[in-house]
Automatic annotation (TrEMBL):
Origin species: Prunella fulvescens
InterPro entries attached to this UniProt entry: TspO/MBR-related_sf (IPR038330), TspO_MBR (IPR004307)
Transmembrane listed as a keyword: yes
Entry protein name: TSPO protein
Subcellular location: Membrane
CDD domains per the UniProt record, alphabetical: TSPO_MBR
Topology relative to the membrane: Multi-pass membrane protein
Transmembrane stretches, start-end: 6-25, 46-66, 78-99
Pfam families per the UniProt record, alphabetical: TspO_MBR (PF03073)
Keywords: Membrane, Transmembrane, Transmembrane helix
One GO CC term on file: mitochondrial outer membrane
Keyword Nucleus: no
Predominant location: membrane
Family: Belongs to the TspO/BZRP family.
Amino acid sequence: GRMWAYTVGFTVLPHVGGFLGWFLNRKEIPAWYEKLKKPSWCPSRRVFPVAWTMLYTGMGYASYLVWNDLGGCSSKAIVPLGLYGAQLVLNWAWPPLFFGAHNLNMVM
C-alpha cells in the first residue's frame, strides 16, 4: 500500500533543497561562476545537473532503506538518519554560501 509513497518521498526529499539551491543561484552561474578561472579538468556545466540528480536520488533512496530496515522512526534510526539529515542540510547550504558570498576562501 503506502510503502511506495515512503519510497518516493525519501527519494525526492534531497532534490527539494538541490532545486532551491539552483533556483536561488541560477543567475550567479553565468554572471559569476562561468567567469572564474578553472582548471582544465573542471567538468562541463552540463555534467552537474546529471551528477547531482544521481547523487541526490541515491542518497534519498539509501535513507529510505535505512528508515525501512530500522523500523521507521525508531530509536535505532535516530543516529543514522540524524547524521544523514545534518549532512543534507550542509549540502543544501553550500551553493548559497558559494554563489552568494563570491568568496572561494570561505567555502574551501
